[in-house]
Amino acid sequence: MSKLMFMNQWPPLADKKYTHMITVQQAEKLILENTRDYGAEIVLFDEALGRVLAEEIKTDRDLPPFNRVTMDGIAIKHAAIAQNIKTFKIKATQAAGNAPIEINADDECIEIMTGAALPESLDTVIRYEDVEIKDGVATLLTDNIAQGQNLHLKGTDKLKGEVILKPGTMITPAIISLVASVGETELRVKRIPRVVILSSGDELVEVSATPSPYQIRRSNSYMLQAILAKQGIKGAVRHIPDNEEIIKQQLGLCLQNYDVILLSGGISMGKFDYIPKALKDLQVEQVFHKVQQRPGKPFWFGKHENGVVVFAFPGNPAASFMCMQRYFIPWLNASLGIQPKEPMYGVLGEDFTFEPALEYYLQVKLNYSNSGQLIATPLAGNGSGDFANLAETEAFMELPPDKAEFKKGEVYKIWPFV
């Protein structure tokens, strides 16, 4: 049995080094106390994919709106079966969308297609496989015929005026189909916040540039932008150098023009980490700074009196990625009125050791066992900063800070990547 280790020179659990930080649960609570309703807007229904509904949608008629045929075949009056009638004269053929064709005698039938409206004089459909048709006559090949078979009866799904969608519903392809079926050409949806992503640091160069031996390409911004895009948000991307005045100026402009500021880097204790001071000078209230977690311990969160919220993530790519998944996405969903899903749990697939008294977000691959258990297998790498592992993993497993040894088969919370 393999045993992944992540011990290094960290202190034992009894050490009080991390008690001055807030817990993950406290950070989550404080963030969710600062959600905001950004209002609503009207969009065309076929352009609403990924948006969040801000109104009730009701049926404009019964669903289905008529007794709908579900199999190609013939339609008869079931009373004919009690009379031992086995052959039926075909009066006509009715396609889906055509007006119903009525019969005049019990020994008559019509050929009818899937999706057609059943005539009032008929009540049962027999599929083609169970009849023989010759010279305009349909002969039954089975005695197993139930009244009302192969029909989807009017109003059995929903009645006219029933609520079929509630505010807070995420609009999926299936929802697009549903709103189209009830004639809704426009939808009132939640307005999404305006988001800007700011990276900082003179060691960062553009993706297309050739970095010096002491520089790296900017990647965090585009990773955060991609996560936003999956939420239907087009995030603006900016980069600011390690210059105190420029940082303050750019942050001031963002506070005037955006609803959310996402920062990556520049929030630790280094001599060039000017962002916390600049935010303070701009009257952005610090709600918290530093969380008992790894990765992402230096995470900073604050708010401005004009309603702008600031998520300042560490520059470590894995930390930015985790904090975005663990904190920003739940905040966004709550702001848009999306009800939180039930937590997901998985079974640890291998023994794992992590000693610092921090909540640890372990990168894992997900698979289902033959018995249907969700198995979370750690991917061996170079610790929390190994962002290359993110390309091969699918979720974080949340390991609690009150123990160091995590055994194969134990169950913990899973945070799948969005």
Task: Give the number of domains.
Answer: 4
Distance between the termini: 31 Å
- The top-level CATH class of the largest domain is Alpha Beta
Structure annotation, total helices? 7
Q: Strand percentage, roughly? A: 25-35%
The major pleated sheet works out as: 6 strands, mixed
Identify the CATH homologous superfamily of the largest domain. MoaB/Mog-like domain
| C-alpha geometry | elongated
In the CATH hierarchy, the third-tier topology of the largest domain is known as: Molybdenum Cofactor Biosythetic Enzyme, Chain A
**Uncertain segments:** 1-15
* Mean pLDDT across residues: 90
- Just name the CATH architecture of the largest domain: 3-Layer(aba) Sandwich
Structural class: alpha/beta
Radius of gyration computed on alpha carbons = 31 Å
Estimate percent helicity.
10-25%
Strand segment count:
29
Instruction: Going across the biggest sheet, name each strand in turn.
Output: 8-5-7-6-10-9
Short description:
The chain has 418 residues and is of the alpha/beta class. It has 4 domains: 16-39 and 193-335, MoaB/Mog-like domain (Molybdenum Cofactor Biosythetic Enzyme, Chain A); 45-62 and 158-190, Molybdopterin biosynthesis moea protein, domain 2; 68-152, Molybdopterin biosynthesis moeA protein, domain 3 (Beta Complex); 344-416, Beta Barrel (Beta-clip), CATH 2.40.340.10.
Describe the structure.
- The chain has 7 helices and 29 strands.
- It has helices at 24-32, 79-82, 173-181, 220-230, 244-257, 275-281, 317-335; strands at 3-6, 40-44, 57-58, 68-69, 73-76, 87-94, 108-112, 124-127, 131-134, 137-140, 151-152, 163-165, 186-190, 195-200, 204-205, 216-217, 236-240, 260-264, 284-289, 293-294, 300-304, 309-313, 344-348, 351-354, 359-368, 374-378, 395-399, 405-406, 411-416.
- α1 packs across α7 (317-335), α4 runs parallel beside α7 (317-335) and α5 crosses α6 (275-281).
- The strands form 8 sheets. The protein has a 6-stranded mixed beta sheet, with no helix packed on it.
- The longest helix has 19 residues, at 317-335.
- β25 (359-368) and β26 form a beta hairpin.
- It folds into 4 domains: 16-39 and 193-335, Molybdenum Cofactor Biosythetic Enzyme, Chain A, CATH 3.40.980; 45-62 and 158-190, Molybdopterin biosynthesis moea protein, domain 2, CATH 3.90.105.10; 68-152, Molybdopterin biosynthesis moeA protein, domain 3, CATH 2.170.190; 344-416, Beta-clip, CATH 2.40.340.
- By secondary structure, it is of the alpha/beta class.
